[in-house]
Design brief:
Blueprint: H1 3-8, H2 17-29, H3 38-44, H4 49-77, H5 79-99, H6 103-120, H7 123-134, H8 141-170, H9 175-179, H10 181-192, H11 204-208, H12 210-225, H13 228-247, H14 251-261, H15 270-294, H16 296-300, H17 306-329, H18 333-359, H19 367-396, H20 398-413, H21 425-428
Length: 429
Amino acid sequence: MNDESHGQRRETIKKDLMFYRFSLYGFLKNLRLFEPFLILIFLDGGLNYFQIGLLYSVRDIATNILEVPTGVFADIYGRRKSMVMSFLSYIIAFIVFYLFPNFYAYVGAMILYAFGEAFRSGTHKALILEYLKQHGMSHLKVEYYGHTRGASQLGSALNSLLAAALVFYSGNYRYVFLASMLPYVLDLINLATYPPELDGEITPKAQRNTKEQARQTLRDFWRMLTDGEMRRALLNSAGFTAAFKSTKDYLQPIVKSFALTLPFFLALDETRRASVVIGVVYFFIYLLSSEASRRAARVSRRFSDLAAAINFTYFLGASFLLLAGIATWQQVAIASILIYLGFYVLQNLRRPMMVSYISDRIASRVMASGLSVESEASTLMMAVFAPILGALADRFGVGVALAIFGGLMVLGGLFVRVRPVETGQGEAA
């Protein structure tokens, strides 16, 4: 998005059938009933924070290894097929998580989950961007993606209540894996029936000449990675996302500790007492995150350009993580929870901005692959962050670990400030 269009456009997005199908994808995809309890599930199974960090690292390293080939697969054989492969992998992973609750089986499940992440990352965004291009709405990327992402966060809000109700009723965390299969089967059907034209520039000749297509995609990768501004944008986006995803689940033990101090439901066991408060907290977090996604374009227009909005939200988010760590260290749980809420909101404000900013620098024919590069950088950072964060949490406590990461994130932001995109730059890429 160039600076002029950033400051002046006020057009309304077209909410047709595909808008609602794109929104339905995000809504169903975020019905991951295990997410509000994932660290607690692992802790309940006897794992320590370092082992949990290793599991996250296995998932992220596997995702990182698979990002480029799955991105190439999407560009050659079609984005819809890539999404179907993704959701089949997720469903199998959920089955393994449910049936085999031990560290080594979890490693296998994390690898299966990584297949799902790698096939999906960047690909659905590319489907949306292709649709906008075909219908002359490319200039509304922030608004459109922000609204569809808002539906995703509504799914997460409902997910929190459903997960809490299931854990409260059953008294067992692991049933959430089994329950997560139903929305994923429905989403698989939704994705498999997307219009074929959203696959982009795919022809029978291109499918036969897969080696040449792969070489062309890799050449485009190299152009992106040798562009200094593009590298800075990738690191800004990936660094913030990696820090957020590596630390966000640590809210769960914070909320659980807070729940156990409340003078409510004292006749219930710890799991059920914690499930009630966790469900309510995550419901409000995702409700506000949903609204933040829909308002991303409006917020970004308050700045001189999109780059200024991205830089400001990066430093604000880093400061939130630092303050959340300090509040947790000082055992002011309610303050930590509220600050974490702000961190979640910022992540969902930033994401539509970053998708628009990066897409303006990538040629449309390799959109899936290009956005996968950004996701690959994020997963690589997460693979490094997760076990280090876990070891710090085991050694010094969750609060100190979060504060250290927040401080490092602030320092890192000095080197990844982005600049405005020049008009037409993305098409020339």
